[in-house]
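As a warm-up, study this chain.
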Amino acid sequence: MDTDALDYELPESLIAQYPAEPRDASRLMVVDRASGTIRVDVFANLAAYLRPGDLLVLNDTRVIRARVHARKATGGEVELFLLTETEPGTWIALARPSSRLRPGMVLQCAGDMTATLVDRADEGKWQVRFSRPDVVAWLERQGEIPLPPYIRRDHPEPLDAERYQTVYAARPGAVAAPTAGLHFTDRVFRRLGERGVDRVFITLHVGYGTFKPIKTAQVEAHRVDPESYEVSPAAAACLNAARQSGGRVVAVGTTACRTLETVCDARGVFHPGQGLTDLYIYPSHVFRGVDALQTNFHLPKSSLLALVCAFAGHDLVMEAYRLAVRERFRFYSYGDAMLIL
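Now compare it with the structure written out below.
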């Protein structure tokens, strides 16, 4: 597939800069693959489109406050964006401005922490060693929530600390939110429970690579960055039980979808496990673990949009996106939602 096939026109005014209030006031586009029909509703009514016995699969990762400010010995400011912990106290990070940074340079951070630039890594990244191993706990006190680059703010606002997390976020490790889950509220979960729809949690720590566009001419030539996942034995048993009873497995977000497809075998059986997944889903992928998908509206020429096209078909997805633009849906992380049945 030509990467240009994943392009579409989006007015900048439709890129959501703030979340809906309340969370479940987001709009919902419901796409039926069997009939090819598309309808518009609000997220608070999600339960109406699911059936008793369906199982929602939610990613319980928690966004860490991965952006911190430091100073060089000369007084110059350096911004660090922590991406991946390679061992206790040592991280791969982006550092800006990158000019005049040298290996061995020691940066002074708030909270009596120093960061040493050990060596350059690939794609403009640095290996950074901190003076203490309790970096995640320190970030909670001194760091900033790392908002996506298309949210145009100099700094996060107080509301982002709450709203750029799902209400069920539990396991710190992501540097970007699993945004399909941002719409859920206690009210939505109550209605789902009354409908007979259960839920189970898995984990995929979303990495910075989620924002990486496809720059190759062909979709298939792109590669996604590996991300850490975990599916517990209890979660796998719950998934298999839902399948055996005839329920649909409904992935909440592309992160949950990729995790489920990673741990599901050719017979449709889910297996517990943990590790790294670099599964890249694009049209021609045969889905084994996911029967329905709830997701947000994604960037043009992105691996996330390729996944959605693989699940629902390119033509139907692009028709839905054109309708979303006409109906002035809100796009990207703080935007509206789509349910594909």
